[in-house]
Amino acid sequence: MSKFSVMVFFLILVGLVFVGQIAEIFIPPLDWMFNAHIYIVPVIVFYGAMTLPFPLMLCLAFVAGFLWDAMTVQVLGANVEISFGWSILLYAVLAAIMHGLKPLFDRGRWEVHCVLSGVCTSLILLAQYLMISFRRGSIFFDREVWWQIGGPGLLAMLMAPLVFWSLHWLSRLTSNPYHQDEEGFDEFASR
Amino acid sequence: MSRSSIVALVLFAVALLALLSIGPQATRKIQATFFQTIAPFLKTGSGLERQITSVRSGLKSLEELERENSALRVENRSLKATNEALRDVEHEVNRLRHALNYRERSLFRLVPAEVVSRDSSTWWRTVTINRGEEDGLAPEMPVLTDEGLVGRTTTVSANIAVVLLVSDENCRVAASVEGTREQGIVTGERVAASVSPLLDLNFLSKQAQLKPGQKVYTSGVGGVFPSGLFVGAVRSFQVRGLDAQAKLVPAVDLAKLEDVFVVIGRK
Q1: Interface of B with A in 179-218 (CB under 8 A)
Q2: Which of B46, B47, B129, B51 lies closest to B88, judged by CA?
């Protein structure tokens, strides 16, 4: 029963990642924040990283990275700017770090993970920026670049408590066994 | 680490390495299949987005009316709603008439397309259009409007295609300046701080002395873009170490793209 519940919750997260990825297309960038984009999917993946077992966490990172690459990778003539798969690796590494901090989350220190969700979102964008700069042969960091990297992270950080709370509620609804060993997060969820 | 975790890690690594090693053709195929799969969601989302935008602009007008004359608010509200509906119809008729005229007088064989979604990523500027292989589209085809150049197709699936906008740094266009012998390469900026970024015209000679307002057209060099397409107008000109550069205002307002044409050949 518990394995079934975990799978149900995992599939819900996969569905949400898919919906989130499509929704991101229709959310316009914020003009007042130097055209920063809003990213929902990383926050969902990082929540999954803390509540799913390691193998399923990897699967979720794979799905999210695959979707991101399928939508954004640029094939120009006979060249691919950033190879298909890099986002999967980025997601997996960052999700694994979040997974490692799971005990802290279980003890109710959810604010650390909210902040980290923002930091990790920015890290994905920073890694992408470094890769395209390497490919295009020049690198610069001006105010616009920092805003386009930091802005989405900041927004993800602000969104994280609400997203975590909603997903936590869904997790409870699906009887995800993760809740059996949690203590402190109940406090946060019941607020 | 448990046995299942190790197995998952190995499987993950194998799948990742397989994906990382695929070439451009396979990448294009994966992307085309993916876009084909999500095409219904994109088209539905695009329709919803237009409806929401239309409602929002209607509400804005009502707010203005309230400020102007509170006594006539109710009457104004109904009149405004009627006008808004008629204006939408008029705009649609004008837009389609304009598009039809342009298509008939153009030298090229054009496929009309509608923009269904805009770029969702920070570093690449693309749009998705509702035409694909079934309509005769292929990768590397120029995309334009009656106002000028928009970009070129990259990934094309059965009935949806991705267009790399001229404002993307990777979309390089060989161009020449009206009334001069100056030629250069137009590229977008890597980081755009607004939804309507400027373009760079690089590799000009130091003696070019371009003036604001001078028009820049495609030169036809490179094979993707035919010559004579309006790319943009010069906004500023500056001499650099080895060459000169001009900033261009794009011919097309890329933030408000609705209908485009894909050039599939000459008439």
Answers
A1: 190-195
A2: B51
B126-129 and B244-250 as β-strands: parallel, antiparallel, unpaired? unpaired
If residue B143 lies in a helix (H) or strand (E), which one and from where to where?
strand B142-145
User: What is the domain-level CATH number for residue B107?
Assistant: 2.40.10.340
Residues 42-71 of B with CB under 8 A from A: 42, 45-46, 48-49
Place of tokens 């409602």: B55
Residues A137-180 pLDDT 10s: 888 888 888 998 999 999 999 999 999 999 988 888 887 766 54
Q: Which domain holds residue B263?
A: 42-267
CA separation for the pair A33, A35 (Å, rounded) = 5
**CA atoms of B15 and B68, how far apart (whole Å):** 63
| A50 vs A25: CA distance, rounded Å | 26
B36 falls within a domain:
no
For residue A95, the surrounding DSSP H or E stretch is: helix A86-100
Residue A82 phi/psi, 5-degree rounding, is -120, 125
Q: CA nearest B254: which of B174, B198, B185?
A: B198
Total domains in the fold of chain B: 1
Is residue B8, in this structure, part of any structural domain at all? no
- pLDDT tens digit sequence for B72-94: 767 766 666 666 666 667 767 77
DSSP state of B113: E
